[in-house]
Amino acid sequence: MSLQDFQERIRAAAGGGAPLCLRGGGSKDFYGNEPRGEVLDTRGYAGVVSYEPTELVITARCGTPLSELESLLAGNQQCLPFEPPHFGPGATFGGCIAAGLSGPRRASAGALRDFVLGVKLVDGRGRELSFGGQVMKNVAGYDLTRLVAGSLGTLALIAEASIKVLPVSASELTLKLETSQDGALDAMNRCAGQPLPISATAWHAGELRVRLSGAAAAVRAAAQKIGGVALDGAQGFWAGIREHSDPFFSGDEPLWRLAVPSTCPALDLPGRLLIEWGGGLRWLKSDAEPRKLREAAQRAGGHATLFRAADKACGVFTALDPALARLHRELKAAFDPASVLNPGRLYAEL
């Protein structure tokens, strides 16, 4: 498959008003509203375009398997710093950027959108567009490269992207501390205010796990300061959190993703809770009324997303205020005037 093939398919769809479902491996079909339209499979447009380890930048096509890209980086002792979840063996590089999801390291390293340097897109008119570049100081169009991260393919097909990578940590250690939710939130916020090499935190059911990453001496010193019990083989635990294969995520209850300020105290909500990102991300397995959960998150200064559920009638994402809704409509009209690219994945009206 070539870029021209994508352009022709999209032009034909726009001309006939036929929706297209942009899809790589389909590992994140559950996220967002129900996919609609004829599938435009991106996996045929794959491969690493350029990679120079000393430059800490990799450029790849959308259909490149995410696992292959990460294996290539690992061979050079490098990684995607934001630890993107795969949610399945078919995950692709383009789908990773379109979903915009980050894993346990997000609070310390930054979000996926912070590492996207440049993109090559095919918009809803079938036009090839390029924004950004391959170096951080190339800021031309930089905001637009960040804009497509997390857009779920509603603005354009992400044909190619350049992304910043980082070296893997020289040393890593995970500590376990027994503590209540209040104690965990206090500890995470106290640690965040100190120069400690914390790369991930997770609290659930009375246990707080803290991952330290960096130079061996710094990791040892931080472990002595924080205390707790050092865990062996903790890579599997963090992989379970990232991929939602940990037992916490099992069960039929809806899974809510509450993004709140890290200093937010414990929220009195029914259900099972797991806290990440130093207190800023709170996963909740709950059958509670969606309105109550969203109001609680809003009062705390955040928002709630229905991440996984059999019934999404309440809407996946928090409703936009009128000004933001207008901006979303204008962006959709500018990039995809016929509204054929993943219609409704973010909001039903887009």
Rg (C-alpha, Å): 21 Å
What pattern of helices and strands is seen along the backbone? HEEEEHEHHEEHEEEHEEHEHEEEHEH
Total number of helices? 10
CATH class of the largest domain: Alpha Beta
| Uncertain spans | 136-142
Total of domains? 2
Say how many strands there are. Answer: 17
Describe the fold and architecture:
The protein is α+β, with helices and mostly antiparallel strands and 350 residues long. The chain folds into 2 domains: 3-167 and 328-335, Uridine Diphospho-n-acetylenolpyruvylglucosamine Reductase, domain 3; 171-308. Helices cover 28% and strands 26% of the residues. The chain is built from 10 helices and 17 strands. The chain has helices at residues 3-16, 66-74, 93-99, 106-109, 142-148, 181-192, 216-226, 235-243, 290-299, 322-335, and strands at residues 20-23, 38-41, 48-52, 57-61, 78-79, 116-123, 128-132, 156-164, 166-167, 171-178, 198-204, 207-214, 229-231, 255-259, 272-276, 281-285, 303-308. The strands form 4 sheets. It has an 8-stranded antiparallel sheet with strand order 13-10-12-11-15-16-14-17. Strands 3-4-8-6-7 form a 5-stranded antiparallel sheet. Strand 6 and strand 7 (128-132) form a beta hairpin. It is globular and about 65 Å long. It starts with a helix and ends in a 15-residue tail after the last helix. The model is unreliable at 136-142 (pLDDT under 50).
